[in-house]
Prior knowledge:
The first copy, chain A, has helices spanning 6-19, 27-34, 38-54, 78-92, 107-110, 113-127, 143-153, 211-222, 270-281, and strands at 24-25, 58-63, 69-74, 98-99, 103-104, 134-138, 157-160, 171-177, 184-190, 199-207, 226-236, 248-257, 262-267. With 282 residues, chain A is of the alpha/beta class. Chains A, B: Belongs to the purine/pyrimidine phosphoribosyltransferase family. PurR subfamily.
Amino acid sequence: MKKLKRSGRLVDMTYFLLQHPHELIPLTHFSERYQSAKSSISEDLVIIKEIFESEGIGMLLTVPGASGGVKFIPSMGEDEARQLVGAVCEKLSISDRILPGGYLYMMDMLGDARFMQEVGRLFSAILSHKKIDAVITVATKGIPLAYAVGQHLDVPVSIVRRDHRVTEGSMVSINYVSGSSKRIQTMTLARRSLSPGSNVFIVDDFMKAGGTVRGMMDLLHEFQAEVAGIGVLVESGEAEERLVDDYLSVARICQLNEREKTILVEPGNVLEYMMTLKEDQS
Amino acid sequence: MKKLKRSGRLVDMTYFLLQHPHELIPLTHFSERYQSAKSSISEDLVIIKEIFESEGIGMLLTVPGASGGVKFIPSMGEDEARQLVGAVCEKLSISDRILPGGYLYMMDMLGDARFMQEVGRLFSAILSHKKIDAVITVATKGIPLAYAVGQHLDVPVSIVRRDHRVTEGSMVSINYVSGSSKRIQTMTLARRSLSPGSNVFIVDDFMKAGGTVRGMMDLLHEFQAEVAGIGVLVESGEAEERLVDDYLSVARICQLNEREKTILVEPGNVLEYMMTLKEDQS
């Protein structure tokens, strides 16, 4: 790459850091790339850090020493988080989503890749201080959000399936009871898609009684893996008995009346978690 | 936002543009945000444009006039594309992936969100001049790549399913013949997850005879939608008869010997397509 002035370096470094979250980048990477002194690179990073932090884009951690460098941790400002949670609630409140049987049509939200990225960033902002090695979800509708979280945390995504496919080698299966329908179902994960002992964040699009999430927890146990957290886009507040205690949710359906076509939605607990995090830090 | 100097503006604008691909941003958005003259903003954009284009990050199109602004179109440089295709081939060549029955284990690649993003960017670079309104894929393993393409093109993703789920309202189903196994199967797409008349890019992780892709084409026909293109991560060069002619592929399996545990992989046709595109432009 040809020698760049500060203005050019700032654009290129911003791009590079955003593309490499949670990765330790040695300063020599930048100083060699731009043929610039490390002191100039350090000054560039001060400018980037200031904007990233004031705009809630993320944190820039500098690790000193010979094996040091800089690390970008994606984050989200409080205002942006509130707006996002508000947008999720507003989208969910459209009565048009109510399907026969009281189900909710959500593919318009789940099919919006950029929107899912934002929700993924919100989760990863809350999780940025936790040790997480992998994200797990169950096919099909949890996948978009799981990938958005995996990308921002820079960890792999494992997909649990409800069917048996021969094309993934040795599989681990468990039976679980769906909390709402009380039926016994099977879920399966390819043996080699998750390392034993991993700290895993569980993601799903919707949680009612929590049977599916509970099933994933049992499956993780079979892999000697630890549950590092649980996050769902939407939880139903109408569940009589919940099989899962500690989880993050972006929105909560308080009431759904199929006959009158009304939905009452309120923010989930993500914002509260975010505030607790902030207090812990200060 | 407080008034920013050029250096701060460049970092913030770079971030904003990367987050809003294919969206027309009026210059007033930036001039109001930073309390700066439009002339300064224009100068900032010249700097960003130069770096984005020289580094193969993407193009910055400026639309003049009162309703004008700036638009970021993600792209990929030729060198980066070659490296990426090489990396896909190299990963695929590991003999360890061969499963009983001659299947290939690919979840390690498909589970890497950032890697999928890069492949998605490669596809969207080739597609950036086409009119595409939606991306479609079939559950489960095509989903990560489909979302990566959808995100870079800023269009919604629709997920075709092989099972019948009652939770998505009115569905359109078709029967199709799997090209390899010759069995009749069903695929289903929620009526409201795709607008009639859309120009749709079809994505899948793997294509052998092309039966699944052919099925999606038939399904699109039921939606009065047009096939704007087809892209697969891996194609099998061993298919006797292919049901699909025109498609993009990142890598091609030329030979797979289950007994000797050898895989021969070569680059697919994406790079050729990229070159043709470049010639058309010059």
